[in-house]
Amino acid sequence: MLYKKQSLGRVKRAASFAISMNNIIKLLPESLINQIAAGEVVERPASVVKELLENSVDAGATDIQVDILEAGKSSIRVSDNGRGMSREDLLLAVERHATSKIREYADLMTLKSMGFRGEALPSIAAVSRMTIHSIPQGYGTGTKLEIFGGHKSAPQEVGGIAGTVIDVQDLFYNTPARMAFLKTPRVEWQQIQMAFERVALGFPTLRFELNHNSKKILQLFPSQDLILRLQDLWGKEKTANLISVEFEEDRIRIAGFISPAHLHQNTSRYMAFVVNHRWVRSPLLYPLILRAYGQMIPPGRFPLSILWMDVPPELIDVNIHPTKQEVRFSQTAWVQTLVGKALGQALKSHAPNPAGQERGFAQKDWPQRSNEPFLFKETPSAPYLNPSSQREISLPFDRLGLQKAFPKGISSEWSGKALPGEGPGTTGEKGFSGLPVLTQLQGTYLVGLMTSGLILIDQHAAHERILYEQYLKQWQSGGVSSQYLLVPLVVELSPGWTLDLESVRADFEALGFEITAAGRNSWWIKSIPVGMSPGEAEKAFQEILEELRVEGGLSHREGFVSSLLKLLACHSAIRAGQILSEEEIQSLLNQLDQTECPSHCPHGRPLWIEISWEEIEKRFKRK
Fold it and tell me: Sheet holding 271-275: strands in order across?
């Protein structure tokens, strides 16, 4: 009897466990499925703009208008003159995995449209209040459909002009956690502008219009000339000196523009690839640009470049990312070779003096040699070498005051036991300030004499280090010191780029700039950081704008502030190729002694290198 009770208990427990197991796995409701899909497709308002623009392009539209309210949080409206949808097609379009662009697997492998997943409209509708008006071409009436949080209302008949209008309101109203991850309105608006720009770059023959808070921001007219679309988006100043790229081989056509080696930016934002009309990210393509320039641009700087590529659809896979912003090539080595050849040919055809371009300068930027003393006048305390005068070089060593500096002779004044930059107090009593400077090479490197050999100091890197530490101390004390300009500078923003002046005024004042509005898309610069020339101040101002455009503000983030202060130091520092007086050199060395890190510039490049006597003797085969 006891055995039967125990057996019955086991049966009951097994049955209960089976019932509970059957209740663990359930089919999700359709609304939740759409919200999960929306998490992949709709990251922010800019994602909505991108998806709706691509739908308009695929619908055959030639005129597309985007209207934004409150950086997309309140409303995103995209209107086009495309082919429109019938009532039946419209009802299907808001269902998941419904699309007119593919029918079978072979279509996916030879895709020519922008969208194809059939997830954009239902995903957007799941997290917003969406209204769609669509009228097919050749018809006077069409259909209006409202979807609130994924729930459709009854379709209504409407009249109007052929095409489609999609109005997305109250984005993320039913998913407050998603809304909490949105950035400031300024950042979200800038992301919308970038999404708009990327689609417009892929289709220069279409007309686009962008409005924000009922204000027209950008109007792009159709053109067959790629440079005109680029000028409308990036401005004539940035695109004035670009090098044309034209290349075609093995069914791949590459066209576009790249900047000369001496024109580079502090951001990679102006490096773009458009593959089969689609702006894409590609870890394969971006390094090819930097590799093509080699050592012609400094580390941390980026050329302006855009390449339009026509590639056979069967050779690329755009189905590797939910937002279709990445591509994969089936023959990567072949594509790399062709892109490298296209870039190499363009740079080679433009460079009149490749040797002069190696360091990132145009030939005209190099200092000109003359028969005059190269650096400064001969004085007992500051002897010089004149590389242009054989007469001076042939003088006896005692005339130049060098004989006591040879390694086997008497120690020179600069006889620190350690090399400069290895730490405070290790550079000898006089540090850099006591270093005998022989000459200035190419207006860029100071040549100093040590008992152990020669030391070469990069004057720009040294001055960058000095200024960066000064700016950092000023920032920590309340802001960078500024100087007023007798004639204010006028700076125009890129076309289509708007920025709330009041929202960035404090940021710029902290960096030493006083700014006021000068018109719809122009600003006056009334004061600039102390020691910076007006020309360099304008460049620095533009680059800071780019940083703010991407980051959205300083927000006292240590890393971001540091990068801006490095930018200021770079633009304020003496340039490579700039001839210095004896007093200027001495002042530079004196200030270098006061820095906390006199071994590297703020970007990490070395300030100096040593060439020992032993190394020199080995090169001359004396050892």
Answer: 243-249, 252-258, 305-310, 271-275, 278-279
Residues 79 and 72: beta-carbon distance below 8 Å: no
Tell me, which fold does domain 390-461+578-619 have in CATH? formyl-coa transferase, domain 3 (3.30.1540)
Q: What is the DSSP letter of 18?
A: H
Work out the number of other CB atoms within 10 angstroms of the CB of residue 258: 24
For residues 431-458, average pLDDT: 88
Q: How far apart are CA 208 and CA 260, in angstroms?
A: 30
Top-tier CATH class for 30-220: alpha beta
Supply the pLDDT for residue 209. 94
Sequence-distant (≥ 6) Cβ neighbours of residue 354 within 8 angstroms: 348
Q: Render 451-492 in DSSP notation, one character per residue.
A: TTEEEEEEHHHHHHHHHHHHHHHHHHTTS--EEEEEEEEEEE
- For domain 477-572, say whether CATH 3.30.1370.100 is its number: yes
Highest mean pLDDT among 46-55, 352-361, 471-480: 46-55
Q: CB neighbours of 587 closer than 8 A, spacing ≥ 6?
A: none
Q: Is 585 helix (H, G, I), strand (E, B) or coil?
A: helix
Intrachain domains 226-364 and 390-461+578-619 with the same fold: no
Between residues 518 and 407, which one has the greater pLDDT?
518
CATH entry, 226-364, from 3.30.230.10, 3.40.1710.10, 1.10.8.80, 3.40.50.150: 3.30.230.10
Is-above-0.90 flag for pTM?
Answer: no
What is the model's pLDDT at position 197?
Answer: 92
